[in-house]
Every structure is written in structure tokens, then in C-alpha cells.
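Re-run with default settings, no changes from the original entry. Doing this only to confirm the output is reproducible before filing.
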Amino acid sequence: MESFCHALFLKNRSMNKLQEILKISGIPVALASLCCLSPIILVLLGVSTVSFASSLADTLYGDYKWVFRAVGIVTLLGSLAYYLYRQKGVCSLDQLKRRRNEIINYIALTIVVGVLGYLFFLYVVVHFIGVWLSIWE
């Protein structure tokens, strides 16, 4: 019985960490995806035509995608720094040195989840919504 409770505790603890990482990376993924998400939002709000949204998506994704990706990475690192400072209490260099392995794990996991979330959200979710709205084929 004790091993079952310990396994359940570890599973619950890992799910909490995953939820924390998803909270950290959610807004940066949305910001990095705005190059293709903004034309969809404009069409759904009725402010834009489909042809203008298609042209806007081509321009934003073709010429400015690296700007959106850079904003996403900077926001991801900023939200991670905010999380470590506010939630985990890493306020000084001494605490940073003592908790180095934990912080490296958070950074690596956050970057992996952020990149995978960006790829899934932009190239699966946003793409299929855009195809459904006939913004792109």
C-alpha cells in the first residue's frame, strides 16, 4: 500500500510540474503564433475579408516570422524568470547556485515544451482553422 501511495504522490507531483510548465509557456506560444493567428482573429471578428487575411498572413509569415519567433522566445524566457523569482523564490546568485540543477531542468523543459507547443499550435491548430476559413489552402 505504501508503494502505491508513493507512486501516486510522484505522479501527482509530476502532473503539477507539467501544469506549471504549460502555464509558463502558454502566452509565449500564442505570441509567437500571432503571425498566422492574427489574420484568423480578424476574419472571425468580421473586421477583415478572407482575401485580405490571406495576404496579411503571407506577409507576416513570409517576412516577419522571425520577429514573432524572437518575441516568443524572449517572452518565454521572461515568463520563466518571473516564475523562478516569484514562485520558486530564486532571488539571489547564492540561491541560483544552490538550486542550479533544478533551474537547468526548468529551463530545458520549458524550452522543449514551448517549441513543441509552438509547432503543434501553429502548424496543426492554426493551420486547420485557416484552411476551414479558406484563408489558405
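Residues 26-132 form one domain. Residues 50-86 form the longest helix (37 residues).
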